[in-house]
UniProtKB/TrEMBL annotation:
Taxonomic placement: Bacteria, Bacillati, Actinomycetota, Actinomycetes, Pseudonocardiales
Keyword tags: ATP-binding, Ligase, Nucleotide-binding
Name of the top EC class for this enzyme: ligase
Enzyme Commission number(s) of this protein: 6.3.2.2
GO MF annotations in UniProt: ATP binding; glutamate-cysteine ligase activity
Gene Ontology process terms (BP): modified amino acid biosynthetic process
Catalyzed reactions per annotation: L-cysteine + L-glutamate + ATP = gamma-L-glutamyl-L-cysteine + ADP + phosphate + H(+)
Described purpose of this protein according to its UniProt entry: ATP-dependent carboxylate-amine ligase which exhibits weak glutamate--cysteine ligase activity.
UniProt protein name: Putative glutamate--cysteine ligase 2
Domain of life, per lineage: Bacteria
Length: 328
């Protein structure tokens, strides 16, 4: 895409899944057994999660959303086949309908042990699954500019993805995630150094386990040259995951081209996240610039308009509109 810096062209997705016992309908502590039956591929790696009732499939960087979609489909087929042989169903949903009655956090993994010791009851029965999108950026300074740009749009991505209805909320996962310190839209940063200092400060204060951890809905990856969007619920379908990936990359490209959004208040962003988790696309949303309620679909239309040039440049505009039509 003309004008986009080198390194800002790739996209990858991490999908988290629940393992559900077919007989009881409850999530099952069987991640180790499932992972023992799958092998990594050139495009996809399989991992365990904090909860032993979950598994993750992470694609490598893709330039084509068609290739990304195929990698996601193959990963789902692979995991579902092994799970089925073990009497389990692979479920892509933000939170379980019937949680496990057993402890779900691994006590053997040293880092997971530290997480459990730090957050105690918040994680003891935390079975939340997300669809995380990594978009390549050329450097961390560009990544910080991207984070500042995408802040107002994160609630709309959440509303579009909402896939964990419970207790009257479209995304109960986001309600559960809000209990972690620092969860929500990231602050505005002036530089990568300021970003790193903020993370280090939270580690020093004891609210983060280490510098590789943060609970912001978008962040700089601690390991990869990417901006990581962590806002979306687990995708119901591969098409939903592809839609999140395409929109996230289009937002990054728009930011790289220098299109700056007007500043928005932190408290209004927090209100927008809560409203998106409450209603999804089926009710009100908070316009972060006008600071009032509007229909959620109006902000989705505004998002599509905002990233139209980036989508057109990649030849993805029609695809994204088709996928949005399927979702709404």
């Amino acid at each position: 895409m003309a004008g986009v810096p080198h390194g800002a062209d790739t996209v990858g997705v991490e999908e988290e899944f629940l393992l559900v016992d077919m007989a009881s309908g409850r999530t099952a502590v069987r991640a180790d057994a499932v992972l023992a039956g799958v092998q990594d591929t050139v495009l996809t790696k399989f991992h365990g999660e904090l909860a032993s009732t979950q598994v993750e499939a992470a694609t490598g960087p893709c330039t084509s959303v068609a290739d990304l979609g195929e990698a996601l489909r193959e990963a789902r087929r692979t995991l579902a086949k092994v799970a089925g042989e073990l009497g389990l169903e692979l479920i892509s949903r933000g939170t379980p309908m019937k949680p496990s009655l057993q402890p779900i956090v691994s006590h053997d993994h040293p880092r997971f042990r530290r997480v459990l010791d730090t957050y105690a009851g918040v994680v003891e029965h935390y079975e939340a699954c997300g669809c995380h999108v990594h978009v390549g950026v050329p450097d961390r300074e560009t990544g910080v500019r991207v984070l500042n740009h995408v802040r107002p749009w994160l609630p709309t991505l959440l509303a579009l993805s909402a896939n964990s209805p419970d207790n009257g909320y479209a995304s109960w996962r986001m309600v559960q995630q809000s209990r972690f310190p620092g969860s929500g839209v990231p602050p505005v940063f002036t530089s990568a150094a300021e970003y790193d200092a903020c993370v280090a400060r939270m580690v020093a204060c004891g609210t983060l386990v280490d510098r590789a951890q943060s609970f912001w809905l978008a962040r700089l990856s601690p390991k990869l040259p990417t901006v990581e969007f962590r806002v979306a619920d687990a995708a119901r379908t591969v098409d939903d995951a592809v839609l999140q990936a395409a929109l996230s990359r289009a937002l990054v490209h728009t930011a790289c081209l220098g299109d700056e959004s007007p500043p928005v208040r932190d408290d209004v962003c927090a209100a927008a996240v809560w409203t998106a988790s409450r209603y999804g696309l089926d009710g009100a949303a908070v316009d972060p610039w006008r600071e009032c309620r509007v229909p959620a679909t109006a902000l989705l239309e505004a998002l599509l308009e905002h990233v139209t040039p980036a989508l057109k440049a990649r030849g993805e505009l029609s695809l994204v509109h088709d996928l949005v039509d399927q979702r709404v």
